[in-house]
């Protein structure tokens, strides 16, 4: 099914009539929404023309006031119009699909273009969507931007985007990502403004029905309209020749007997004369078996789930009229365990497909994972490419073109006359003989195992379909065969090309990618092959640190991605603020990994001293591989690669570093020969010339046009040598000092454009001044998108808690690791996180049950462990202080020469003109030194009074009376004790207690002996004395709150239930007394009795609750808890620790069951007349949670559930508690 939204800017032109008819016909549209139609009515002949022969039904919203009107039509052959409604800014159709009877709503929007009417438009949008009972598709011209990047200039007002996004979140809407182009509207000025005003929004239940729906902006024809039409495709699955490609499902691990099944198949004697033949035959046999097994069990899931539910339901009906027999009780227990396992398998399946970072054990987040997987699928789908050959559409033409493109890209390298002289290696770091022996020594089983278990989970497998989890789970089964392969590799008798297969998938580098060059090819290699390159990479990492120059910071142990950012940031700041001459060239390599010449790689390895055997191993890894292109889930034919390093191979990053390091060598040689010169020689010895992070390369040079030509020649020579191609037209140039006057000449020499600040390098905006609030906007927007309301709707509290912290680690923390966070930005980020966490269905959406500051406390101190951004920011910036104290490198050299000089770091303070980065580090420094001590050697880096070095606190704290009157407070130990007598003078005479304190201090100083070695710093929060961000964060976030929630958080139950218990323990669960405190007006009466409802009453004092707890007392001989605090306090004092944990899980299940039962009565009008119903809900959860317990404890939970049910029957049935109404039935 397809539809279109288009702002036609009126329909008085016959050319527009024809364009609409062509769109309806060419795209086979099932609906057409035309905004700003501009007419009150349309003649029948015009509507027939629009319909292009199809049976269309049209409705018009006439233009009123400043509204341009809407024309909306549907194809009645496929859609039945149930009802319509109209407003000033919309038409809404309630529709039924004739093919499957699915009922949904289609809303065509034309938002107010004038500022004074936008508020009324947003109010109408809310009212239109809020009470709509059906899934909705909403599209059209909203006339409001959402984010700053939806406009091509800086004239961006945040007011309406903020309100628009708030409306979208409050309605749980999700925007379908648009492809085809970035903007949908443009004006006709000489320098046009582009904006994205048109969009398509959907509700989550609509997207659940159409998970593959997509939106594509078509060509904008200026002669017809200034808006681009939006083609909406509902995305029914497209038949594919290899749709049933084998893929190992992680959910299979949970199936009973599955592991024994795999072991049995693997143990069969394979054919083959060599280990590689036997390995491939075993993999093929297992894949063939599992494919058949999976096909046989396909569809069984739903049938089995229905069967189990029916059997459990029938047993529940029996239990309400007579006691279950022992056999029936056992049967019910087994049925509950089976259905819990099926639900878990479904959640794991969608978790695997969406590639989420974490799976919340026991929380039901299946629908969230499914929606995430659908979004990933849409993002990867390619609908069309705009190339020099023209527009390419359709799966077959796309696959043909893309395969041809990559065959040429990975084809043989062109011949070159440039060669490096391998005899000149004096300036190239060399691998030692011992290191070569280490690299090529026999490979042990433990080494192979380490590589296997280092592989990340939930990553896409290669063509054979087996992920890393398979190798980890069945390591003991497969290890003997794998070790044989490695033995063959060491003997150089392994044809590893028989494992070297991969599928290339294309990931867009940017939104609205429309050219093949805008996609990143990721090669999904067989895990069996990646194990070999992973082992080789582990060995290579052991020697790479001194083989690759320190200017390269990527994928190198001990080097931080942000090290290079510090160098660039401080260099830009120094050049600008001191008005120094300099030129910075930010190079853009075109598909760098894919163009590396293998001969150059091997030559580089030889010149660095790698042995011939190691070079042969590397050659076997990178060459001889076969790949196929996967386009829209369809895999093309395999072909062999002739050059390039495949992205997805564990060895590729470090091998690329070795290749790129030769550019640094050539630059250094040219600098030594006087052909080029670097910048800031007063901060870096010989000047700074190059900075590298993989293929992100920055070149620095002094102002000299002739030397710039030399550098351009050097870069061209490197292109010929390595095969890498520099996109000079995409590279950027930044000129400082006198060089700024010659900027056009530099741009002409390099053929590149002049860049604008801030420079975006490795995701960090680099500027010579402080970043403005507007420049932080992209961080806020990214977090807001990641914490969209639709995700909150599909996630439990536990899922939301995990997502809040996980998205923080992936994006915001990156910026917080470099800059100090402005207060306004902090407040906005906390607003988005708070809004996301409290987002929920029903009435709880508007209530926040605890202050945000409480939620940000650690769990051990009464909070939920949400990261406190302000404290996290300080802890992250403190890392730089520690590295400055303890490490040496390029950025440390710059910082010491620029800010520290001969002073101690602890003596340095922020001053006007310091860089944005350094000002943040200085703020963190004041906190950092509180948690560390100096081991005094020469005393040059330690402040005498203010640092901790003599005792556990600074001397200023130990001797405050002396510190107040000392003349020089900021002196170092070396300045004080560097002479025979302490060099300290005071502003007043020392009398009384001051004299006593001074004499005591002198006595202690007599034992201090200075040496020539530098002082060392010890981090007191770690036993090893080394700094960690976590330790500092924990120390700073610590508060003296006497709360002990350790018992709660250690329980093996779903996280959402732990959070429920946390609310319960704090007394904030929304019982009716708590609702009344929040100005809720309604009955305060308990649903089970006539008393006022409170937490203590509902869970512990109500006659209904007392009856339930009485069953627990009879079954376990335990007195019921008096309150929630008593339950997690001293209720189980004296009971074995492990047994008490099991009891608390049971108590948690009981409280959870009572709360769910109460909510069923309140919100779903269900009737509950017997405590037996709560007992059944409780035991169902206990059985479900048993899978989270230790294997040896699972039977205990099953038996406890059975005993609880039996005891309840024995107590209730003789006393008339039998219930005639079904659990969950509606009250009369």
SSE topology sketch:
Elements: E1 2-7, H1 14-26, E2 31-35, H2 44-51, E3 56-61, E4 70-75, E5 79-86, E6 90-97, E7 103-110, H3 115-130, E8 136-141, H4 159-170, E9 173-175, E10 178-179, E11 185-186, E12 194-195, E13 198-203, H5 204-209, E14 214-217, E15 230-233, H6 258-266, H7 275-297, H8 300-319, H9 326-354, H10 366-380, E16 384-387, E17 390-393, H11 395-409, H12 433-440, H13 445-454, H14 468-473, H15 475-490, E18 501-508, E19 519-525, H16 527-547, H17 563-577, E20 582-587, E21 589-590, H18 598-607, H19 612-622, E22 626-631, E23 634-635, E24 639-640, H20 652-672, E25 690-693, E26 696-701, H21 705-722, E27 725-726, E28 732-736, H22 743-750, E29 753-754, E30 759-761, E31 764-766, H23 777-786, H24 789-794, H25 797-816, H26 823-838, H27 852-855, H28 869-886, H29 890-900, H30 916-928, E32 932-935, H31 955-958, H32 960-965, H33 973-977, H34 993-1005, E33 1016-1019, H35 1029-1037, H36 1046-1050, H37 1055-1066, H38 1072-1077, H39 1095-1101, H40 1103-1116, H41 1124-1127, H42 1137-1164, H43 1171-1185, H44 1194-1212
Parallel strand pairs: 1-2, 7-8, 10-14, 18-22, 28-29
Antiparallel strand pairs: 1-15, 2-4, 3-4, 5-6, 6-7, 8-13, 9-13, 11-12, 14-15, 16-17, 18-19, 20-26, 20-28, 21-27, 22-23, 22-24, 25-26, 30-31, 32-33
Helix pairs in contact: 1-2, 3-4, 7-15, 8-9, 9-10, 9-43, 13-16, 17-29, 18-19, 18-20, 20-21, 21-22, 23-25, 23-26, 25-26, 28-30, 28-35, 39-40, 40-43, 40-44, 42-43, 43-44
